[in-house]
Every structure is written in structure tokens, then in C-alpha cells.
Amino acid sequence: AEELKLVYIDAVGLLQEEVNAKTRLGSEAQQAIQKGELVPDEVTLQILKKAMLKHADKNRFLLGGFPKSVQQANKFEQDIATVAFVMALGEERTADVAEVVSYYSPIGKVRSVSMAGAAPELVYESMKAYFKCRFMYLMGPPGMPVPKVAHNLEEKYGYHSIDVMALLKAFAESDQRDADAVKQALAKGKPVDASLACPLVLSEVYRGQAMGVSNFVICDFPQSLKQVEFLQHMVPCTSKPLLLDFTRADSEDLAALGFTGGDAIMRTDAYFL
């Protein structure tokens, strides 16, 4: 969880902690357990919500041992947050887990991981793949309205757009220590050093992740191989480059005519199909 910038919450462990601490919620849970009853969903959800609020700044959670039923899942989504997906480990499942899997499968929110004869390391790698960010690197010749295209992708496909040139220009005009180095690189049309450009991009990625975003379209990036190596070392991800293939002269002419990126949008649409 730490590697993937997730907050892991063990629902069963949290419940036991509340019982051991003899809190109000713990006492209600203990009473149900002593009667041989299930812990009320309201109690479980309050415990989860309290734990999640402690990490509201990250807003990316991996809930272990939850939900136990479709009813519990529905109450969670109504009262706390939307479920991104359910991860089902192994082939053998209890009736309750099978019910939850059957409920979320038709809407594409189940990720199954086989554990048959697999080493723990391989199981972990299979699980990790589902939590990776997806980066689209959107590039084009000078004059191409790359940010406009990215904005349309954001609206149509739910990608979060990051305008790298805007970030670099803002940094270059700041009073930060390395602002002059960035300004000189931009003035000369040279790639900005990865150690300067990538932390700016990372900050935007982390900000997006805190809002529950996993898919990003990053404009005018990378400018060098070192930049992409830096970013992908820091953030587990899958990535695709997309080059808008207008010539420089064509893109400048289109921009002068008030081009809004419609043709490029059609091309990027085809990229997603």
C-alpha cells in the first residue's frame, strides 16, 4: 500500500481495536458478538469513516476484509465514498464474498487475482497492476493546442490533464532557487532538467491522486528520456505516448485561424477505440 500511495485499512483489525479500547462503538460491537450476532453495519461504517477521515489528505484507500455483504457495500457508497473496484483473491469464495463479486461484476468493478500455486511475490505483482496510474504523454509540434486537446480528453474520458509548460513557466517566474535555470532552458527551447521539471509534475499527480484520480494526460511531456524515467520510477504506472502529427507549419497556420483542436480530438478518439 505504501509503495502505491494507498492507505491500508484493515476493517477487522479496526473493529478489534475498538473492542479492546472499550470505546462506545467497540462496546456495541462486543455486545453483538457476545449474542452471536453480526456487528451492525452502522457500527462498522462509523469505524471505517473515522479511520478514513484521519487520512483525508490522501483519499486513496485499500480496505481489507470489506465489504461483507452487498447491503454493507451499498451503505458504504451512500454514506462514505464510491467503490472504485473490488479485488477478489483466489478461486474459492464464501457465499457473502461471491454475492459481492456477483453484484459488482456486471458494472466492471471486479478485479480477480488467481492465487493457485503462485508465489506471494507473483500474487503481489498481479495485484499491484490494478492500482497503477495510467499516464498518457500528449505531445505535438509548436503551435499545436495540446492543452486544449487534453482538456477535451479530460471531459470525455475522465483523464486529469497536467499542463507541463504552464507549470514550468510559472516556476520560471517565481522566486524559487532554480527559477533562472528553468527560464533559460525555456528561452533556448531546451529540455528542462528532470530534477527540476519532474517534481512539479509529481506534485500535480499526487494532488490528483488525493482527489481519487488514477488517469492522467500530461501535456508536452516528456521532453527527455530522463524525465520519463524519473516520473515512472516515482509513480508505478502504465503509460502511452500520443503524438499529434501535424507539421509545425500546419499547426501554426491552424492556430492563426483560431483552430480549436477538433481534428486532433477525432484522432485521439480513434486512439481510445
How would you describe this protein?
The chain is α/β, with parallel strands linked by helices and 273 residues long. Helix content is 52%, strand content 14%. It is built from 13 helices and eight strands. The protein has helices at 11-21, 24-34, 41-53, 70-79, 95-104, 120-129, 146-157, 164-172, 179-188, 194-210, 225-234, 248-256, 262-272; strands at 7-10, 61-64, 86-89, 110-113, 133-139, 160-163, 215-219, 237-243. A four-stranded parallel sheet has the order 6-7-5-8, with helices on both faces. β3 (86-89), α5 and β4 (110-113) form a beta-alpha-beta unit. α1 crosses α2. The longest helix is centred in the C-terminal third of the chain and has 17 residues, at 194-210. It is elongated. The two termini are 32 Å apart. The relative contact order is 0.12.
N-to-C CA distance:
32 Å
- SSE order in H/E notation? EHHHEHEHEHEHEHHHEHEHH
State the secondary-structure class. Answer: alpha/beta
Poorly predicted runs = 248-266
Q: For the CA atoms, what is the radius of gyration?
A: 23 Å
**Helix segment count?**
13
Which oligomeric state applies? single chain
- How are the strands ordered across the major sheet? 6-7-5-8
Question: What is the tally of beta strands?
Answer: 8
**Percent range of helical residues:** 40-55%
Helix-strand blueprint:
Elements: E1 7-10, H1 11-21, H2 24-34, H3 41-53, E2 61-64, H4 70-79, E3 86-89, H5 95-104, E4 110-113, H6 120-129, E5 133-139, H7 146-157, E6 160-163, H8 164-172, H9 179-188, H10 194-210, E7 215-219, H11 225-234, E8 237-243, H12 248-256, H13 262-272
Parallel strand pairs: 1-2, 3-4, 5-7, 5-8, 6-7
Helix pairs in contact: 1-2, 1-3, 2-3, 8-9, 10-11
